Amino acid sequence: MKENSSSDIAHAWGRRSFLAAAASSLGTAVCMARDWTGNIPTRYPDPDIIVHDERFNKYKLGNTPIQRLYTHPDMLWAEGPAWNAVGKYLIWSDIPNDVQLRWLNEDGHVSTFRHPSGNSNGNTFDWQGRQISCEHGNRRVVRYEHNGKATVLADKFEGKQFNAPNDAVVHPNGDVWFTDPGYGSLMNYEGNKADTGSVQPHQKEAVYRIDSKTGKINKVTDEIFKPNGLCFSPDYKKLYVADTGASHYPEADKQIKAWDVVEEKTLKKGRRFASMDLKIGEETYAGMADGIRCDADGNVWSSAGWVGAGYDGVHVFEPTEGKRIGQILLPEICSNLCFGGPKRNRLFMTASQSIYAMYVETRGAHIT
Predict the structure, then answer these.
(1) Taking the model in full, what pTM does it have?
(2) Any domain includes 365
(3) Per-10-residue mean pLDDT for the chain, 368 residues long?
(4) Among residues 321, 210, 218, which one has the least CA distance to residue 271?
(5) What is the secondary structure of 121-133 as a DSSP string?
(6) What CATH number is associated with residue 143?
(7) For the chain, what is the domain count?
(8) Is residue 366 included in any domain, yes or no?
(9) Coil, strand or helix at 8
(10) Rounded distance between C-alpha atoms, residue 269 and residue 271, angstroms
């Protein structure tokens, strides 16, 4: 299938550069004139799938569109998508509405999955198919058993409440790793505000590990301003964590960090993996990464937002140097993503008030 020519890419990117500059100067969001209802098909190849480096061409399909699967004016902040392979459905959280929603693969039907949800944010499934959720409102990590009962996996560390667990991933040995940046305790909109007068409501922001055998909670690193989304490399030898500390710490870099995983339990050699800086035209913009996932080749797919047209959506980074190789532009701020579908080759994206999806020529590295 014929890919975009370099002139096509330059023209498409030039148009987006203009829109991004206009959005910045006007202080308002400017979106491309595109019919997201699907009633007017998008001409292939989809112009909102951007190639920055030829290495992205192998993952980009020329005859597939970015689709808006669902949107609703009452949905306020879609987050935490996770794919259930047995049920063939996608779940996600609407944090302010205190609800989890479910999209069925066979007919696109959307229904309420869980309410109340503890103002849940990140969701995932363990190796036994049990759902794990990070609850902002209750400041804890829970696991839903096969009988529906909720088991609390973590609600305190060293006698103190967590700030508000945000996102979680599961290691093949059963350990659950999660982040605790505290956003759910900084506002009532997404949880229950802690009136401590601090951007660290209860604890120093950190990444934790729950030992599957003992249940003991270990702090694996706090060398990060506000750890948000996280994922393992395909071989589980690296852990990537998005730092959204710039939301409250002016000195924080907008970046994705990486650590080496030691003996499946600890971390070492924390360093910058990728910068969220992006040059558009003559200007450099920096939004924030949020949810992240690896594909089978080790590329890191990151949600991105808070800049505007030409930036917001998904940024794709290759694993060796953290170079941005591709981009998926969305008309809304993208909060999180996951790979799913029967072949695990469909990228699902939660973006503000909508759910988007597109097929890619790769698969997610892990089960969710």
Answers:
(1) 0.91
(2) no
(3) 41 44 40 82 96 98 98 98 97 98 97 98 97 98 97 97 98 98 97 95 97 98 98 98 98 98 98 96 95 98 97 98 98 98 97 98 88
(4) 321
(5) EEEEE-TTS-EEE
(6) 2.120.10.30
(7) 1
(8) no
(9) helix
(10) 6
